[in-house]
Amino acid sequence: xxxxxxxxxxxxxxxxxxxxxxxxxxxxxxxxxxxxxxxxxxxxxxxxxxxxxxxxxxxxxxxxxxxxxxxxxxxxxxxxxxxxxxxxxxxxxxxxxxxxxxxxxxxxxxxxx
Amino acid sequence: xxxxxxxxxxxxxxxxxxxxxxxxxxxxxxxxxxxxxxxxxxxxxxxxxxxxxxxxxxxxxxxxxxxxxxxxxxxxxxxxxxxxxxxxxxxxxxxxxxxxxxxxxxxxxxxxx
Lengths: 113, 113
Prior knowledge:
Structural class of chain A: mainly beta
Largest sheet of chain B: 6 strands, mixed
Radius of gyration of chain B: 14 Å
Strand content of chain B: over 45%
Helix content of chain A: under 10%
Number of strands of chain A: 11
Order of helices and strands of chain A: EEEEEEEEEEE
Largest sheet of chain A: 7 strands, mixed
Order of helices and strands of chain B: EEEEEEEEEEE
Oligomer: heterodimer
Radius of gyration of chain A: 13 Å
Shape of chain B: globular
């Protein structure tokens, strides 16, 4: 089973709202990732968790707050977003280490109004 | 700084033809080179990957050719089908314990029936 699940599939939020994106995998992977993808662009790395600890933060604004409650779950908390944050947010997981396959979830389509 | 350069940006191929997408990288520390296929509204799906100790890898109709000295790799899709119409991303990552994967800009492939 190489499935990464993400909820919700779609999310519309106002600039003053607080919402969370959720990601789950049951492949025993110890690295989990958040990517942001704008239309017709490649995924951009936001955060990496390794063994439930934040290992990479690509200078993402503080209005995005990641959380890894356990080895199977990854959350992205959203607060005071801007319209330009509208994008497809992708979660991925892999075995620990950069040279392993990353498996992506279907993404959450976020629209900030 | 774009670490992985991908071309062409878009490609139109007739059914049954060969689709070829090229990528070049700069960082010689990269040691894992995957290709992802992405359909509209979906997350990227791992298609095939190669490591620099081999020059070619084939899986069904998909082949990666790798030229370490030129720092280039390419994806060949043989007998292209309309169902192959999607966006293809090459990527590169480096080293054990480094989860930093960099994507090319993407190629939008259209296979005409």
